[in-house]
Automatic annotation (TrEMBL), chains A, B, C, D:
NCBIfam families linked: PRK06027.1 (NF004684), PurU (TIGR00655)
GO MF term set: formyltetrahydrofolate deformylase activity
Family of the protein in this entry: Belongs to the PurU family.
Keyword Hydrolase: yes
Gene3D superfamilies: 3.30.70.260, Formyl transferase, N-terminal domain
Substrates-to-products reaction catalysed: (6R)-10-formyltetrahydrofolate + H2O = (6S)-5,6,7,8-tetrahydrofolate + formate + H(+)
Name of this chain's protein: Formyltetrahydrofolate deformylase
Organism per entry: Neobacillus ginsengisoli
EC number: 3.5.1.10
Catalytic site: 233
Amino acid sequence: MYKKGTVSRARLLISCPEKPGIISTVTNFLLEHNANIVHFDQHTTDPQAGIFFMRIEFDLEDFDSSFEKLEQDLPALGRDYALDWQLNSNEKRKRMAIFVSKMNHCILELIWRWKSKEIPVEIPMVISNHVDLKEEVESYGIPFYHIPMSKETKEHAEQKALELLKGEIDFIVLARYMQILSPNFISKYPNQIINIHHSFLPAFVGANPYVRAFNRGVKLIGATAHYVTNDLDEGPIIEQDVQRINHRYTEEDLKIAGRHVEKKVLAEAVSWHVHDKVLVHGNKTIVFA
Amino acid sequence: MYKKGTVSRARLLISCPEKPGIISTVTNFLLEHNANIVHFDQHTTDPQAGIFFMRIEFDLEDFDSSFEKLEQDLPALGRDYALDWQLNSNEKRKRMAIFVSKMNHCILELIWRWKSKEIPVEIPMVISNHVDLKEEVESYGIPFYHIPMSKETKEHAEQKALELLKGEIDFIVLARYMQILSPNFISKYPNQIINIHHSFLPAFVGANPYVRAFNRGVKLIGATAHYVTNDLDEGPIIEQDVQRINHRYTEEDLKIAGRHVEKKVLAEAVSWHVHDKVLVHGNKTIVFA
Amino acid sequence: MYKKGTVSRARLLISCPEKPGIISTVTNFLLEHNANIVHFDQHTTDPQAGIFFMRIEFDLEDFDSSFEKLEQDLPALGRDYALDWQLNSNEKRKRMAIFVSKMNHCILELIWRWKSKEIPVEIPMVISNHVDLKEEVESYGIPFYHIPMSKETKEHAEQKALELLKGEIDFIVLARYMQILSPNFISKYPNQIINIHHSFLPAFVGANPYVRAFNRGVKLIGATAHYVTNDLDEGPIIEQDVQRINHRYTEEDLKIAGRHVEKKVLAEAVSWHVHDKVLVHGNKTIVFA
Amino acid sequence: MYKKGTVSRARLLISCPEKPGIISTVTNFLLEHNANIVHFDQHTTDPQAGIFFMRIEFDLEDFDSSFEKLEQDLPALGRDYALDWQLNSNEKRKRMAIFVSKMNHCILELIWRWKSKEIPVEIPMVISNHVDLKEEVESYGIPFYHIPMSKETKEHAEQKALELLKGEIDFIVLARYMQILSPNFISKYPNQIINIHHSFLPAFVGANPYVRAFNRGVKLIGATAHYVTNDLDEGPIIEQDVQRINHRYTEEDLKIAGRHVEKKVLAEAVSWHVHDKVLVHGNKTIVFA
């Protein structure tokens, strides 16, 4: 197998209007750069006139020089073929900020998967509008910032958060953060804010989904991880799952059962995002899971 | 075990306001009537002041005389304790009418489970607003009635259907019947009409759920079997299930994948209804599955 | 609703050879003792000549005196009707010992559900044959005992564990404890030791199930929680679940995916055990979940 | 979109020892042959020294001449690069023989998916060791051959079947066919015979899996579709799924519940086989579903 330290894995994401020969073009380019393709995923919204999406995971020997060469030569390829592209490697971990309120089930699942190396990120900070989780978060060596938030202070509080985040993080996870972010805030991180909604969207958009699920008498409850846009609970869905319930479940039981779906769905969405497996197309996602 | 012909199974459903000793009262009554309890299910919406639901499945030796005695004595018990009750036995099969339009996947699943004795019913008739399935239905020896329906003829057509059904059937299954029944029709069969909606309600209430699921980019599609009320797609949910999909599914693929969830969910809801396992409470169901 | 402090919930488990009127007898008894039945579950292995199982959850006003009266009068009822019975209440929490080796995913899930009050137990101690998890366990205020174990020291080590446990705990959870307990040890806690096996039993009994699942090319991996008996991986199964995988999963990926099934399956089995929802019948369980 | 009649979809399957540039080579080749790639799937067992698998689905304008050209030029490409390859198109449907015994649930599901165009095959014949399903199969216009089989007549009966099949079919589905095929028979259709086993393999290999599942007290039952090899129930697994059960299920109930898993799992495996989505590697499959 590979000698440790000399080979590294990288990922190239490409999207462009459908055109003949695009796969050949890109794989030829990688071949010339000594990239050894490990996984190749592709999708087209319409083979005649749609949008083409591609994710290539590849190994590079002599990583430092090879990757540098790729970074140098990709812009020209992109220009020539009108490609949107993104290049990442395992050598550089994404930096994830977590926003929480009072509930700890989602953030603890993320932290556990981070510590067990299942989600390879850095966590430069946790931001919360409450102090409840401060001690627990700090016990993992993660900086915790308390930014109180009310209707009146929202603009100011978001400004403070943006300053903390600036240049320090790559994406944000709302791990049961019970505040609605402003369009201004969201515009700073397009398709880089992941939220967990505690229902099977589009059912029960908005507040108190478990109470409404209880009142409607559904037989399954669910959770949805999605990118945040200005339309509440309408952003591109990354992952969803459900849990069977029955007539014996009280509202409280729904919340308890739901926690386990929420933490699983959010953690998987975050893992896919971190591994560059999620591409956004309009209000939908392509997930090369 | 039992000698064939001398023992039969029966079911007693009871609901009443919560009161002390209700289980003792009813089980004592059954004991006196020589009923041997096989399954006992119970639910209460609130142990202090809620509604109490009970389903008892029991064996009766010397069925004819024992059952007759039960039928005689239950009304008095019901009066004394203010019980809503319902008594059924395997000796008398429920009679099911099926309403269809053009698609055959749901009705064929019901027919297969009927022929394989998984759903022990009689099927006195199928009613359709199209002729497409006439030959197929009749090949199973089931009478097929074609009642065309348009906006203008709806009242007349429903009247015709009601005349056909009157006294001949116990409940109705809408097996992808693409017409909305009038309040007048529905009032004749309260909680006795089962519909299959091709989405995970309350997501995508109304028309074209698969198209809307495609456009929203959900990661799971579902189906919902529910009793029909005057509020479209708002009746008590009996069963729901989902099927995982991904970005490769076209609208057409969603419809195809959805058919298998629809037929399964509908068949299970019908089976539970036939076995008296579904009790309705307001807009919700208690399912003793 | 209830006034705090004056009402408590209790549970009565009963098993006996099938006999007429057993439900009436027991519910009459509870009625006389002012117990208000909240949940009633029942099962019979054969309505004519089988074993009858019953679980009744009920509320008691004036808990202290009512419960004491129940405890006094139950033995006579049990004698008269040849019942096996067990009486528990929410007032007295079960005491759970956890055995671990090096992996923390299962124990952390148990600890989280304990801290969030989802699993209402006391955890008097964690015992491990390694020191790896000492600091983490103690950070939750739980005593941690390191008892090294090798083939040679096994008898002595188990003796030491038994002394620590004696009188201090009610049941034991093996949360990925990588040692096989001796028949002598197991005999001290019959149907009171819960193990998580990392496969969908009876597939892949024994060591290295993920490696063997990988080699066999299965499309689902699973986990099984069961009571421990002297026959390795053959004890009564409490809960099982599976996770879909595909050809891209390496052996390492199977282990990672499996962890999430393991922790969920074990936590649910433990929760049911704690709530007295699991009855054992021979090598099988009845789970009133 | 495409003009009807002028464009058709084709599929190229490739496997070979891992080598640099293989994707470029093949996609360049397809580009030169005016193939428009619609779906591209790839897998490698080891990026350095493993086996490489590829499935490309592509559209061809002027199908007749384009496809002919591909068929002419592929052998040379295969030789030059030491590729195993297979080329198919939607223009030519695979021919499927179905073997059954007495149970009809699996074959009816296949027939329904065939009639609804979900599984695009031809069904030249059904062969059975019983006459029970003759009338039902023939009602769909499918020739039915009854070949009785006993220990003594097995060799002769298989010979008769082989003669019927020869040149008429491409693959065989054992839709609950309760006979074990001989190595001689199997050798004629390597990786072209699909069986449905009524358990979650490798649990309950061999006879009476539901009885054994009942006795073991499992909480999920399953079904497994696999290619038939000389080792009973040991062939490459194509698909598996499970169904939750509980202590109330009798052996008979397990069989009934199992039927629905069996028919679904088998139909999906057959559909994938028909669409060339299954590649075999040793005793495992790669499924590009």
